[in-house]
Structures are given as structure tokens and as C-alpha cells.
Design a protein that fits this description.
mainly alpha; Serine Threonine Protein Phosphatase 5, Tetratricopeptide repeat; 9 helices; chaperone
């Protein structure tokens, strides 16, 4: 069938456009398809990683329940090497650190906590920092313990970090600094938090005073 004049003009216009932009358009389409394919493949990879990591974490938990520290450490090491990008990895490191500590293996406990600090999200880092500082405090490695607490932490963990810092400074007999740290811990800890009372006791034990809560203003 012969094309009418308007169709021929449209075809000529399209041909001219394609001659000018055809190669560019083709490459754009190829790139877009490649990007979508990569995105879909990455999502599949992430889902697969998470599923496998979940199964390994369950295995680790069973080893914890059985008090099999050797198996716990092996599972945690596998998790860290194969599934480091998942949230299960720093979780496993924290669990493995506790298992090692209970087995009197402080060296492994510290190594697992350090891994969580270096690879975990901010919340896991904060927990690991406080626990690592506690282990170093027990070893009287005060400078290392304070260094472990360096850096920013999420606001929800600011009280725990300041409290641990107070413990370290008090152990060094740096009482003025310890009082400042404990006061910072109180300021950052919710009044409904049961741990707040212990912070108050520690502050008072080194000569600090806990200010009374201000009475609520009467309504006008």
C-alpha cells in the first residue's frame, strides 16, 4: 500500500531524526536496560544474602544455647566473611563477643567487638564501644578504654557512653572528670530508665550531687 503524502512526510521526518539521534537513543536504551538488570540482580543478591545470613544466625543462636563457644565463633566468622553487608553480621559479632567473654576468652571477645565497631551500623557500633570499653576497664587499660568510646554515637546511646566514661575516670581517681561524665549520663538518660538510679548512686559515691527535679509550673 502506498503511503499518502502526510505519512511520507512523517516517515521522512522520523528517518532524519533517527539518522541524527538513532545511535545515541540506542545507547541510552542499552544503558537503561543494563541499569535495570543490574538493579534487579542486586536486589536478588541482597535477598539471597539475607536469607542465607538468617539461617546462619539461627545456627549461631543454637550454638549459644548449647554453650558451644567454638561453634559460636566459627559461625560468627563465617557470617563476617560471607555476609558482612547484612545486619546479621554485627549482631553475630556482639553475640560471639558475649559467648567468648563467658568462656573466659577476652582476646576473642575484644576482637569481635572491634569488628562490630568497624563494620556495624551506628547502633551496633555504640553497643560494641560501650562493651569493649568495659572489658578494657576490667583490664585496667584505661587509656584504651576511653579511646574506644571516641566518636559520635546515636543520641539514644549517649547516656550509656557517658556512664561508661564516668566508670573509667572514677577508676583512675579523676573524680572531677568522672562527676562531669556521670552528670552528662544523667542528662542524657530518660527519667523512666531503671538504669538512671545506678548512675545517681555512682555520682553520689564520688561526691557528686543529684539536683532535685524542678517542680512543674502552675498553670496560669
Amino acid at each position: 500500500m502506498a503511503y499518502d503524502l502526510e505519512e511520507q512526510e512523517q516517515l521522512a521526518t522520523l528517518k532524519a531524526w533517527w539518522e541524527r539521534y538513532g545511535n545515541l537513543t540506542t545507547w541510552i536504551i542499552i544503558i537503561a536496560l543494563a541499569a535495570y538488570s543490574g538493579w534487579a540482580g542486586w536486589n536478588y543478591y541482597q535477598r539471597n544474602q539475607t536469607t542465607q545470613a538468617s539461617a546462619l544466625y539461627e545456627e549461631l543462636q543454637r550454638a549459644v544455647e548449647a554453650k558451644d563457644n567454638t561453634k559460636v565463633q566459627r559461625a560468627a566468622t563465617d557470617m563476617e566473611s560471607k555476609f558482612a553487608s547484612t545486619a546479621y553480621a554485627p549482631m553475630s559479632a556482639l553475640v560471639a563477643a558475649k559467648s567468648a567473654f563467658d568462656a573466659n576468652d577476652a582476646k576473642t571477645a575484644k576482637a569481635q567487638l572491634q569488628w562490630a565497631i568497624e563494620h556495624g551500623a551506628d547502633e551496633f557500633k555504640a553497643i560494641a564501644k560501650v562493651r569493649l570499653a568495659g572489658l578494657l576497664l576490667d583490664e585496667k587499660a584505661y587509656d584504651q578504654a576511653l579511646k574506644a568510646l571516641d566518636g559520635n554515637v546515636p543520641p539514644a546511646f549517649a547516656g550509656s557512653v557517658a556512664d561508661r566514661k564516668g566508670d573509667i575516670l572514677a577508676a583512675q581517681n579523676k573524680l572531677a572528670e568522672a562527676r562531669t561524665a556521670y552528670q552528662a549520663a544523667l542528662d542524657a538518660t530518660d527519667k523512666k530508665n531503671p538504669g538512671r538510679q545506678l548512675i545517681q548512686l555512682k555520682l553520689e559515691a564520688i561526691g557528686g550531687s543529684v539536683p532535685a527535679d524542678k517542680p512543674a509550673k502552675a498553670a496560669a
